[in-house]
Amino acid sequence: MQTFQSSTWADVDALRTGIMAGTSASIEDAAKLFVDQLATYSTVVLARVFLVLPLSGLPETEQAAARGAASGASQLNSKTPVLALLGSAGRLPQWRERTKSVGHLAIPLLSSDHVQNIPMIAKLLSDLEVNLAGLDDGKPIATRRMLGGLNAAFFVADAASSLDGAGRHIIPAQDFVAANEVRTVFGMGGAYADGTLAVAIVFTSETIDRAVVDRFPSVISNFKMATATLLSTGRVYRGTP
């Protein structure tokens, strides 16, 4: 039984190889390959890959989901950054198809205050050293360090008990946590050359040490390398010409 806690550097290299294997026609296809590779670890409950894209860069279904999530907020416009779900894998059949996601298909990042009110997203972007102030003034949210090749880790040691500075559960969906015995949640993220952010999040049923999690962030570089040309040519979603 393969677990993250017992993984070795050789296992990380195998994950890299799997992510780079084959040729994908879109980033959506590559993201599905990525999450399916992550899901080979037996303790994965749910694994997802997102890109942060402008609202105007999403297909109509995803744009509609973002508008619904924004609930008519005046800040939403064509340039609003959206955390867009590109790949999903997990224990339940509905978790293996990204379009069946309820509430996470397209999450608009309306402002720094708005993000701070979503504990998991706030923690994720903070850990990844994203420039949240950029959400308020229309500037890029990828920091210079990210553009310089920094890949950072998101880490929640215990999904059932970890709280943010306001005393809120970092993973708000505690019914999901309890039902699936989710323990450590971790992720990795980095920026493409144009500032587009790529993020992977993994919900596991094992307790993982931070030192172990820190072995994995560089894996996002392999995903970016495998998809950089797809991004630059606009082939983000499946079926893109």
Can you tell me about this structure?
By secondary structure, the protein is an alpha+beta fold. The chain has ten helices and six strands. α1 packs parallel to α10 (219-232) and α2 (27-38) packs antiparallel against α10. β5 (185-191) and β6 form a beta hairpin. It has a six-stranded antiparallel β-sheet, with helices on both faces. It starts with 8 loop residues before the first helix and ends in a 9-residue tail after the last helix.
Total DSSP helices: 10
**What is the count of β-strands?**
6
Q: What is the CA-based Rg, rounded?
A: 17 Å
Question: Low-confidence segments, ≥5 residues, pLDDT <50?
Answer: none
Largest sheet: 6 strands, antiparallel
Arithmetic mean of pLDDT: 91
The share of residues in extended strands comes to 15-25%
Give the tags:
single chain; six-stranded antiparallel sheet; 241 residues; globular; alpha+beta; 10 helices
Concise description?
The chain is α+β, with helices and mostly antiparallel strands and 241 residues long. 34% of the residues lie in helices and 18% in strands.
Task: Tell me the layout of helices and strands.
Elements: H1 9-20, H2 27-38, E1 44-54, H3 60-70, E2 81-90, E3 106-108, H4 112-116, H5 119-127, H6 134-137, H7 144-147, E4 152-156, H8 174-179, E5 185-191, E6 197-204, H9 210-213, H10 219-232
Antiparallel strand pairs: 1-2, 1-6, 2-3, 4-5, 5-6
Helix pairs in contact: 1-10, 2-10
